[in-house]
Amino acid sequence: MQTTPFSLSHKTALITGGGTGIGLGIAKAMIAAGATVVITGRREDHLKSAQEQLGSNCHYFVFDLLEKTGIPALIEKIESTIAPIDILVNNAGIHLKKLSLETGDDEFEQIIQTNLLSVFSLTRTCASRMVARKSGNIIFIGSMAGIFGIDRVSAYGTSKSALTGLMNNLVTEYAPCNVRINTIAPGWIESPMFLNAVNADPARKQKIVNRIAMPGFGQTDDIGHAAVFLASEAARYITGVVLPVDGGATVNF
Questions:
Q1: How far apart are CA 82 and CA 170, in angstroms?
Q2: Half-sphere exposure at residue 166, Cβ-oriented, CA atoms within 13 angstroms
Q3: pLDDT tens per residue, range 52-79
Q4: Is the pTM of the predicted complex or chain greater than 0.90?
Q5: Is 242's pLDDT higher than 90?
Q6: Active-site annotation holds for 237
Q7: Mean pLDDT of the chain
Q8: Quick one: angle between helices 192-199 and 202-211, nearest 10?
Q9: Pick the CATH number of 12-244 from 3.30.830.10, 3.20.20.100, 2.60.120.380, 3.40.50.720
Q10: Three-state secondary structure along 8-20?
Q11: Which one from 60, 156, 174, 237 is the annotated catalytic residue?
């Protein structure tokens, strides 16, 4: 049977931070497209709950990406017990909303460690195997804060901007080996945490709504469908792009 170029059948995807929010949305979309999915995170209760929702094609490993020395063993365990990793989605990250003048060095470093340095370590480990197999897809989850300035997120925005620079340089190394790497920059995506925050601050909510060209906030499925496309054969000639999924917010000044 011929499959659609958007199919992820017979592919295995590793999604960090896959137990909640955008990571869970990506996992759902990739499983619906035929993939086997491995999700990681620090909280087993969230991973178990996600696995119950996602079904038998989902596996999970409790892992803290800050423990970078354990990454090679994690990848070896996944590939030896489940399957070689065809798709890596670097979704896990942390946020900090604070004026730069009030942001301590330790806080800034924690954001960089989590959102950039751990991403590089995991990407390097997975990419070494993908390059050897001459096949693979890597997706970074960036942010609008990595595209334009947003007040009170200097550490977070810097970490996401740096992902674009990392992607650009890795493309030059990985593309000859048929390993593609792209970045998705989500806009304002609905989640319980986001809705609680904006509903408690009507002025901020209205400012966000005015910024978005299309009506309403995005859904986690919107990010998931974009990830499926970038990981599929439909995007086989696409590498090194930053794809905003934001309802036009990046251009709607």
A1: 27
A2: 25
A3: 999 999 999 999 999 999 999 999 999 9
A4: yes
A5: yes
A6: no
A7: 94
A8: 110
A9: 3.40.50.720
A10: CCCCEEEEECCCC
A11: 156
